[in-house]
Amino acid sequence: MAMIEVDKLNLSFGEGDDANQVLHDVCIAVSEGEAFGLVGESGSGKTTVLRCLAGQYNHWSGRLAIDGENLGRKLEKARCRKVQMVFQDPYGSLHPRHTVETALTEPLAIHGIGDASRRIDAILTKVGLPTSFRYRYPHQLSGGQRQRVAIARALILEPRILLLDEPTSALDVSVQAEILNLLADLRQREGLTYLLVTHDLGVVAHLCDRVAVMQHGRIVDLIESANLVGCVPEHPYTRMLVEASRHYDRHMADSVAPEAA
Amino acid sequence: MTQETQVIQSPMLQVEDLRVSFKTGEGMVDAVRGVSFNLGREKLAIVGESGSGKSTVGRTLLRLHPKSARITATQMRFGDIDLLSCSEKTMQGIRGRRMSMIMQDPKYSLNPVMRVGDQIAEAYLAHHKVPRKEADQRVLTMLEAVRIRDPQRVFRMYPHEVSGGMGQRIMIAMMLITEPEIVIADEPTSALDVSVRLQVLATLDDLVSQRGLGLIFISHDLNLVRSFCDRVLVMYAGRVVESIAAADLDKAQHPYTQGLLAALPSVDARRPRLPVLQRDPSWLTEPIHA
After folding, report:
1. Which of A87, A235, B83, B126 is most buried when burial is the number of CB atoms within 10 A of its CB?
2. How far is residue A103 from each of residues A88, A120, A123, B232, measured CA to CA in Å?
3. Calpha distance A123→B106 (Å, rounded)
4. Structural domain spans, chain A
């Protein structure tokens, strides 16, 4: 059975004539333990799908299910125990005046889980940080260390699913490699299911088994990462994304439709 | 004519043993520690991680640092002008006129309360005493040159009304309207989507080759630099650890360059784990590969 089911998901903002439909019949199914990628450019709706699953939007129509249970409009505590999200910008997603300890205690307090101190030590070790880091403030951490804390905060509730929104795009290449390795290890060890959103095809091909390509709120292509190796995808949009991630080519630029003013 | 031949023979920009330090709460911090390079009519990339000093080098050339910064070099010449000792007045004649800089994010670099056309015209009028009408005409021609389809309309727009890719093209138009000899582009496409990035790069590429400019392309994207530029300087902790032709990047000698390349996730080489860069303290001091 699929761990994450998204069936005919539609979402619009605004009403009447001003309505702007941002998702059109999006369907995906991610099985347990799988890493699934969503790629696309700004405005393609990839992050919006993630936000619907995380409960940040509740006026969608269609069906969303986690672990076989349909999701309601309201964000319930039980869903948060199963699904957690890691955001793009580790600088913006940690409270600047809260220590790592405070940031990690909060989800535990909300869910009434005891034994906080031991859990914090355990989770910091799991994400590869020394336990002494619990007394630090975000400004005392590097970008990579902050993202590790953000991952720890998502994992401390022991969720089954991680929603990853561009988790490495704010990081340097060398640090990105460390975080991608950490995510791969965690998935293997904990049997987590990932839904990863990114614009970087290299990242998605590295971490994910399957990739859906989104454009203008629709899924236009679905590919297996293994099939991307050394090949030229059939769908023109996917082909452009893949080729552009390989190298810059003056001729390719001409084939891209000029941007509307 | 004689001057023309001279320019071709000698590099436009010569930098030797450039050092930059900044004052902080804990004393001086060395941001650039002995960088040397020449720039001709070519696309030269400077790559490195955050904090490696690549943007600092670009800003030093235009003297954009605070007074408290300490800048030394055995040589920093632009044509026959000594950039270290020339007066602020000379610098004003160079900055934006003969050497200009394209910044990373058009959202923060364009004036939000000024029409796009007026901003570009301002850049031109700062260096050329011409009637406003003529300046406007040049702006329209320039907007066309960066492949904006409806220049008349875009001229009247405010920065918040244009997309990221168009914003970046407007920046390019603004920087190239004075017909500079050198353009420094500091991560000009990092904030852009793949397809938009392609188009902006193509625009820059065409203008550089048509006008015979020297381009310094500051970037952290090795894959892009490899296919877009002619030559690459790899910076680590304020020093150039390797200088290599872009086409030969695969054969890079320095372990840092090799490490950066290996750490890139790729569509074509799926590996269970990415090799993590092991930093060697000797990289901070060892002599530099030619």
Report:
1. B83
2. 17, 10, 12, 42
3. 40
4. 2-255
Q: Which residue has the tokens 């000797």?
A: B282
Query: pLDDT digit string (tens) for B66-89?
Result: 988 999 999 999 999 999 999 999
H or E, element range at B71: strand B70-72
Q: Is the pLDDT of residue B94 over 60?
A: yes
Residue B2 has pLDDT above 80, yes or no: no
Q: What residues of B are in contact with residue A47 (Cβ under 8 Å)?
A: none
Chain B partners of A250 at a C-beta cutoff of 8 Å?
202, 205
pLDDT at residue B53, rounded to an integer:
92
Residue B4: its pLDDT value, please?
45
Domain carrying residue B240: 2-98+178-284
CATH number of the domain at B225, please: 3.40.50.300
Torsion of CA B216, B222, B227, B229, to 10 degrees: 10
What's the pLDDT band for B199 if we cut at 50, 70, 90? confident
Whether B140 has a pLDDT exceeding 60, the answer reads: yes
Q: What is the rounded distance in angstroms from the CA atom of residue B123 to the CA atom of residue B115? A: 13
Other CB atoms closer than 10 Å to residue B71's CB: what's the count?
16
For residue B253, give every residue at least 6 positions away whose Cβ sits within 8 Å of its Cβ, in sequence order, or none.
Answer: B242, B244, B289
Q: Strand, coil or helix: what is A226? A: helix
* pLDDT of A124 above 60: yes
Do A179 and A144 touch, CB atoms closer than 8 A?
Answer: yes
CA distance B227 to B248: 10
pLDDT score of B43: 95
* B109 in a structural domain: no
A220 touches chain B (CB under 8 A): no
Of A177, A181, A256, the CB nearest to B195: A256
| CATH superfamily membership of A2-255 | P-loop containing nucleotide triphosphate hydrolases (3.40.50.300)
For residue B124, is it within any domain? Answer: no
